[in-house]
Design a protein that fits this description.
mainly beta, binds calcium ion, globular, seven-stranded antiparallel β-sheet, five-stranded antiparallel β-sheet, Hypothetical Protein Tm1070, Chain: A, disordered N terminus
Length: 345
């Protein structure tokens, strides 16, 4: 074989091989995957106020009882609950040990005696050292009984997968005694800053924009309640931008301000949702208009210092009620999302 051709062939093989190893780098684009197991679960809204009952479940789908050199089984994990109060975003946290295939269901009001509503996140940790680990075996659900509105809603937790252990061909250098990859580790591509980085290296990135795919024009019989929050920033005031569309491709831009966690009806964002000016005959009878909207963090500023940040990360969900009052029907869902951006907390 011509030596030059041989070199070219070798180079091509090398590129191919490198390509295989470079595949995990593309996971920068990874987004949360609501119905798949992850290492961090975020419940956007727990509500333990009078008349509401929030039941949270975390299930460990790793059933491996193989014993590691540190005497823990591979399916043993510590889960760390962080309850964040919806008013001041102060934290209450506690841990729970889960055996292989274990499931843990709690009543938010009993499990967290300090807060009545807000959001919760759950992080997988090594049961021996309590370090955060790549343990994509946690799934979560929440059921809320709302006797005030007269309905029950359920949503899955938003699951973020950890990324150091994504490639079975390239074992991560920094592992626990139980054989799980550490997430906050420089050797594993992380930052070792004591924080969770949702940057496509430690954990899947946050979504850039959230989308309410459809809502009915708001009125006495249709009330949608949106939940929004920016994790990890108790003193951050977020100034998101809403793009609201009717069913005739007309767009309305609105901005809005909230502190750390917010829940409110769509008409608190803009009265446009009560008067969409779209096609009344598309749906019905009865004639009701529909619209949709996108939400982007846009910008935020810290109370006190006044320092501004671009595009703070946000997550959320929506509770929809129809009919009004206790005679109504209701449902809830997570939001759709688009694009990726980093978050850190
Ligand atoms: Ca980190
Ligand atoms: Ca954004």
């Amino acid at each position: 074989m011509n030596p030059r051709f041989k070199v070219a062939k070798l180079f091509a093989a090398l590129v191919l091989m490198l390509g295989t190893y470079l595949v995990p780098a593309m996971s920068v684009q990874a987004q949360p995957r609501e119905y798949e197991p992850g290492s961090v679960l975020i419940f956007p809204f727990f509500d333990a106020r009078p008349g509401k009952l929030s039941i949270l479940t975390v299930t460990n789908v790793n059933t491996s009882r193989r014993v590691s050199p540190n005497s823990f089984r591979q399916g043993d994990v510590q889960i760390h609950y962080y309850y964040i109060d919806g008013v001041d975003c102060l934290e209450f946290n506690r841990t729970q040990f889960l055996t292989p295939g274990d499931t843990h269901t709690v009543l938010a009001s009993q499990h967290n005696p300090e807060g009545s509503f807000g959001y919760v996140y759950v992080v997988a940790e090594d049961p021996e050292t309590e370090e955060r680990i790549d343990y994509d075996y946690l799934i979560g659900d929440e059921v809320v009984f709302d006797s005030k509105l007269g309905f029950v809603w359920q949503v899955p937790a938003i699951a973020f997968q950890a990324l150091p252990g994504q490639d079975p061909l390239v074992p991560c250098p920094d592992q626990t005694g139980g054989g799980h990859c550490l997430t906050d580790s420089v050797a594993n591509g992380g930052t070792a800053n004591g924080l969770m980085d949702f940057d496509g290296s430690e954990y899947a990135a946050f979504p850039d924009r959230l989308i309410v795919s459809s809502f009915f024009q708001q009125g006495p019989k249709t009330t949608d309640t949106l939940v929004l929050f920016s994790p990890g920033n108790p003193t951050l005031t977020v100034n998101p931008e809403f793009l609201i569309f009717n069913n005739r491709e007309e767009k309305f831009s609105r901005d809005f301000v909230f502190n750390c966690w917010w829940s409110g009806t769509l008409d608190q964002i803009s009265n446009v949702v009560k008067n969409l000016g779209g096609d009344r005959h598309e749906f019905g009878p009865p004639s009701v208009q529909t619209g949709w909207m996108t939400v982007d963090g846009a910008e935020g500023f810290f109370s006190g210092s006044g320092n501004r940040v671009n595009d703070p990360p946000i997550l959320g969900m929506i509770v929809k009620s129809f009919g009004g009052g206790t005679k109504g029907l209701g449902t809830a869902s997570l939001l759709h999302h688009l694009g990726t951006q980093p978050a850190q907390f």
